[in-house]
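Run folding on both entries below.
>entry_1
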Amino acid sequence: MGCKPTKNGKSLDNPHDQPKITTKVDPRILQKYEIQALIGTGGFSKVVRVQHRATGQRYAIKMIETLNPVGQDTCERELQVLRRTKHQNIIQLIEVYEGSDKRIYMVLELASGKELFERIISESFDEKEAVRNIKMVLQGLAYLHNLGIAHRDLKPENLLYSHEGRDARLLITDFGFAGRRTTGGSEFTMKTACGTAEYVAPEVLLSIPYTVGVDLWALGVITFILLCGRMPFDDENKMNLYKKILKADYCMEGEEWESVSDNGKLFISSLLELDTKKRLKASDALNHAWIIEQKANFIKRTANAKSIRRTGSGKSNESSKHSNESKSLTSQNRRVRAKELDELLMYYRYGDKE
């Protein structure tokens, strides 16, 4: 949620005081930037909103603890991506500091609008608005995939609006799980088990080499949520959830789907496709009839939207992830883990496959 502090230090959008940062910060940062508020936290990072002392421009600074090997790996992955990218739908890296306190300070473009997640649960959409949002994500993905980069953790919590206006750009953020092409060639495969359970592609669950197509599967899940207000695959038990994903066991029937166009449903089906060779690529998806036609019919999705559960951890750039909505699922217990996939494969190898 975009936070607008008043004179008493409270957000106009949030009745609670904005969290203050108590962590010591490298003096070089303090010399150049005034720290205004703590706006996000993660397992190995904190995000603060700052103002450049000379220009008055506001930015976000992501402070990452690198003493922990996981934090260091996450930081390296994110920097490897952000140093290569410059696109209107990808969060922009401004500069980087290596602190004497063993932290990395990433100065980032400030996304002062809400997360896509928060707009889903708080606002109604017509299909034209849904298309506008998905098109922006596709443009960012097409750019990344052309560079040989896969996001691998695409979800509404990692999609932030540049500001609160209706014409805001939607920005892809959080590249801590990104995979990169390390050798030549337009096609490359990855093997690491990662991502968030509700959005993970079936080929990741099967522990087979996968491609950037995993991002398109995740976008199919996001589009499904955007159009009907609920998850296509939903179960708090992760093993049951994975079994549904492996069968592409989702349904586009019921009252909430009556007003969704046939092209919208076909678009989702072309992304939630088990056969990776048939699944649309980002560049092809941009030319899909649903994206091109942009129908403006209202969709009945708001009644279910409040029931969507958050899978994020609070690593937002500006958007507030401190709400009381949907705290039953945290990012840590919804992470895809290799040990779980070993158990899943054992089930399919020796257990009941029905």
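>entry_2
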Amino acid sequence: MEQAVWAVDGSFFGQRISGIQRYSIELLSALDAVAPAGMVEVVTPPGVRAPVYENIKTVTFGTRQGMAWQQRDYPAYLKQRGAKGLATCNVIPVFGFRGIAVVHDVCYRARPDFYTDLRGRLSAAWHRFQYRRIARVAQHIITVSEFSKSEITRYYGVNPERISVVYNAWQQMQRIAPEDGIFAKHPKLRRGEYYFSMANLLKNKNFPWVLRAARNKPDAVFAIAGGGSLETEAKRLGLADLPNVVYLGYVSDGEAKALMHHCKAFLFPTLYEGFGIPPLEAVACGAPRIYVSDTPCMREIYGDCAGYIDLKTNRGYVDDVTPPKQDAAVLLARYSWRKSAQDLLEILRKES
């Protein structure tokens, strides 16, 4: 039987990098080391540059950009090439797609209460439509945790046999050099004596919990990285001007690595995740302990290596976090991009 060609939607190479794009970038890089030449191609819009691979071919195709390219030019390439699609960022073409889709989570379906403004409702409607479409037409679905797999089955009735789990990993942090100059910028931060979190205004990230924790422990310093209007949100919550909170704004990858390495603990009080990679990255950077929400997903990913925040009873007290039972560094042996790439390659071969 002739081996199928898998054509990856590479439009994410032109997008701002978040966890979804990082997963796609790192997984493809690792896949290049194990996949036979000619099996996988990355297709990008004009002007979007993909890395140079050894075994994965890169192709620029079409004339459009953004969603128009994704919905029109990408499926046109699949048809012209006779290839199967591999879409790694939650979205597939509405028409003309056959292949494998990655659904990182179904937060838009599971927690509609997070998306109440107009922009949020529109985004939720689009993604819920995509989830339904993927559940209906994708040959196979990949997700990033057993928890997320169970959610896809729960909300969209997909047979679990049509879903495989390919985990995130952390090795990208090894390529980043720590930038300790961040401590000169913020002399209030003393190595080993501050709690660190990376925040935004997405409701699932639960930024208010960190502020309440700072209010409730005034003798400790809480460093919060992230752009947007965090200080404005703190004012809205009545938690502005806490003297032990240091707002860092956007930080570089190197600054984040230094902050993770030297923190007392990395805080991740999330309300909903498909995987939740920041604590794993923190451990890879040398964070001595991680405190995460006590949810099924976090329990699956972090096991005994994390301290757990029971959000039903703990309204913002770091001293009441259930302590970890194992050293956080034990986590690093569980996850690797090479292993995830091997898992993906096996799926591609099975579904060819």
